[in-house]
Specification:
Elements lengths: L11 E6 L4 H12 L6 E8 L2 E8 L2 H7 L9 E7 L14 E2 L5 E9 L2 H9 L10 H15 L6 H11 L3 E9 L6 E6 L4 E4 L4 E4 L11 E4 L4 E5 L4 E5 L4 E2 L3 E3 L15 H7 L1 H9 L19 H5 L3 E6 L1 H18 L3 E5 H7 L7 E7 L5 H12 L3 E6 L5 H5 L2 E4 L12 H19 L5 H23 L1 H11 L4 E6 L3 H16 L2 E6 L17 E5 L5 H12 L5 E6 L11 E5 L7 H19 L18
Parallel strand pairs: 16-17, 16-18, 18-19, 19-20, 21-22, 21-23, 23-24, 24-25
Antiparallel strand pairs: 1-4, 1-10, 2-3, 2-4, 5-6, 6-7, 7-8, 8-12, 9-10, 9-11, 11-15, 12-13, 13-14
Helix pairs in contact: 1-2, 3-4, 4-5, 7-13, 7-14, 9-13, 9-16, 10-11, 13-14, 13-18, 14-18, 15-18, 16-18
The structure holds 2-deoxy-2-amino glucitol-6-phosphate.
Length: 623
């Protein structure tokens, strides 16, 4: 079989070994992980010396519906949800995969880059393949080494170690061996994996939310590490079998953080959590005199912070929009030049960086591969790299030189909401900190801090108008195109409003700087392409109003988001959402909230799968 259509995967892994029925534990875990990828799902259990394997296309629900009373998966097993990057979505490509001789089954998150040469090697030795995946090549390579290893001792672990020494690429894997019913072997390289330690039971997961209900005691595997798990113990080694001391951590998650509660969707729940998530982002981060911000994790003294000549921000997607806001704020309040890069471009661009440049990565998950690679590229060149991340213990958080945790709590909805506003809050506080180290006065600092302190209350006020925003959204739900327009600090928010809408409602939407519209996009304007204008900044209000009039004159329906105190002429807006006024640096945060609700209610009116939009996955761990 040709691997021309190799399927690489960006997915989730769960595993269990203990005394309980493994199927239910695996399926519960997969349901919690489904937001990471949902093209297909599968589980394998080991009982006696035989595997029971079940796979289904589509949602985990299809898999759980297929489990029958008569199936006995035993007390150790592995499971997987898959998000295919190339190649078909099919049951044969779904994980777990079994080796040709039936000795091993394996789940894999990542890409085996040299699968072709390994496959040729195995082909020549009589191995046959049934799927189009690189993962199947890997499980067979393990079997090949197993057959060559001396019996006894840790033969299972040794075979995985030997196989992985030949693998180029990325992986988080969990492996079962039919001759070792009491063991699971896991390994990681550039793909997250953690071990959950229970009472006479062990868990494996690619994301803590899958096991938070069972245990709070975890160990995060580092790149290049393997672990051998039994139900009562585990040991960690390198690929060359050197012993590693495990660093145990405590998860600070509560079950309600990963449950829907009274909400219909995680996205809505997370939108409404923003007063709290913003308060958490600020907690303990103001100076005693309330005139500036402080971040313990930056690992830089005030003197070192003053020496920074330039900051480069790198990220993907929504986090990249937060970087753009950082550019406006840090340049405005601290007068430090800032550049913003797509992580996927930066990693290959070989950008010349000046001395005293600080590189900041923003990533909710802390696992986005391009962002991680951008960070590695900056580190390779010797630059200090800092990270703003939400997930404690994530790869980017651990590999950076320092950073700032968002404390947003788990974000399950694929469309980022509360994590984005927490990022905006942190970059505003960073601008405050850097500004106060330069030219910002004490009075400017205290009014900035006061505005931050008042922010959660103002967010609650915006959220109180949810029903009104819903009514407005329903009027726009039938459109297939929409433009989001804003100037200066509202430009990144226009981009974010457009991204939120397209992600979850599949309406084609774009964000532009409002004045740029005349240079091309205005050709799209008609009664079929409504425009959302972000007119919250009083200093440039008249300029924005002129732009509104330009599209009104061409027949577009217009929704204006404005702030209290801004006069919007009646003839300018078909619909108007007024939000509280706030400090200029915090307007991006408040303006984002109605756009999140607008996107959410449009997607709901169109009957879309809001928390798991088509083709998307929560964290993108492949290129
Ligand atoms: C946001 O709604 C997206 N789903 C996506 O753009 C996301 O922000 C991007 O993939 C970056 O993720 P990260 O913050 O976890 O690195």
């Amino acid at each position: 079989m040709s691997l021309a259509s190799m399927t690489a995967v960006m997915c989730s892994i769960i595993g269990y070994i203990g005394d309980k029925d493994v199927a239910q534990i695996l399926i519960d875990g997969l349901e919690r992980l489904e937001y990471r990828g949902y093209d297909s799902a599968g589980i394998a259990g080991l009982k006696g010396d035989s595997f029971t394997i079940l796979k289904r296309l589509g949602r985990v629900k299809n898999l759980s519906d297929a489990v029958e009373q008569s199936m006995n998966f035993g007390n150790s097993g592995i499971g997987h949800t898959r998000w295919a990057t190339h190649g078909g979505v099919s049951e044969k490509n779904a994980h777990p995969h079994v080796s040709f001789g039936g000795i091993f089954t394996l789940v894999h998150n990542g890409v085996v880059e040299n699968y072709e040469s390994i496959k040729t090697f195995l082909d020549e030795r009589g191995y046959e393949f049934y799927s189009d995946t690189d993962t199947e090549v890997l499980v067979n390579l393990i079997e090949y080494h197993y057959r060559k290893e001396q019996d006894g001792g840790d033969k299972f672990l040794r075979s995985v170690q030997k196989a992985l020494l030949h693998v180029r690429g990325t992986y988080g894997i969990a492996v079962l061996c039919k001759y070792n019913i009491c063991e699971i072997v896991v390994a990681r390289k550039s793909s997250p994996l953690l071990i959950g330690i229970g009472e006479n039971e062990m868990f494996i997961a690619s994301d803590a939310c899958a096991i938070a209900a069972h245990t709070k005691n975890v160990v995060y595997l580092n790149d290049g590490e393997l672990a051998l798990l039994t139900k009562s113990d585990f040991s960690i080694t390198t690929m060359k079998n050197e012993k590693i001391d495990a660093v145990r951590c405590k998860l600070d998650w509560r079950m309600e953080d990963v449950s829907l509660g009274e909400y219909e969707h995680f996205m809505l729940k997370e939108i409404y959590e923003q007063p709290l998530s913003l308060a958490n982002a600020m907690r303990g981060r103001f100076s005693d005199d309330l005139s500036t911000a402080k971040f313990g994790g930056l690992q830089l003294s005030p003197r070192e912070l003053r020496q920074i000549d330039r900051i480069v921000f790198c990220a993907c997607g929504t986090a990249w929009h937060a970087c753009l806001v950082a550019e406006y704020l840090i340049e405005r309040y601290a007068r430090i030049p800032v550049e913003v890069e797509y992580a996927s471009e930066f990693r290959y661009r070989n950008a010349p960086l000046e001395k005293n440049t600080l590189v900041f990565i923003i990533s909710q998950s802390g696992e986005t591969l391009d962002s991680f690679a951008a960070m590695q590229e900056a580190k390779r060149k010797g630059y200090m790299t800092l990270a703003i991340t939400n997930v404690i213990g994530s790869t980017i958080a651990r590999e950076s030189d320092g950073g700032i945790y968002q404390h947003s709590g788990p974000e399950i909805g694929v469309a980022s909401t509360k994590a984005f506003t927490a990022q905006l809050c942190i970059v505003a506080m960073l601008a405050l900190l850097l500004g106060r180290l330069r030219d910002m006065s004490f009075d400017e600092g205290t009014s900035f801090v006061q505005a931050l302190v008042n922010l959660p209350q103002k967010i609650s006020q915006v959220l109180d108008s949810g029903d009104r925003i819903r009514a407005i959204a329903e009027k726009y739900a039938h459109h297939e195109h929409m433009l989001f327009l804003g100037r200066q600090l509202m430009f990144p928010i226009a981009l974010e409003g457009a991204l939120k809408l397209k992600e979850i409602s599949y309406i084609h939407s774009e964000g532009y700087p409002a004045a740029e519209m005349k240079h091309g996009p205005i050709a799209l304007i008609s009664d079929k392409c409504p425009c959302v204008f972000l007119a919250t900044q009083s200093d440039i209000l008249q300029k924005t109003i002129s732009n509104i009039q330009e599209v009104r004159a061409r027949g577009a329906r217009v929704l204006v988001v404005s702030s209290e105190g801004n006069e919007i002429p009646r003839k300018c807006a078909d619909d108007l959402i007024v939000i509280p006024d706030t400090h200029a640096a915090l307007q991006p945060i408040l303006t984002t909230i109605p756009l999140q609700l607008f996107a959410y209610y449009i997607a709901k009116a169109r009957g879309c799968e809001i928390d798991k939009p088509r083709n998307l996955a929560k964290s993108v761990t492949v290129e």
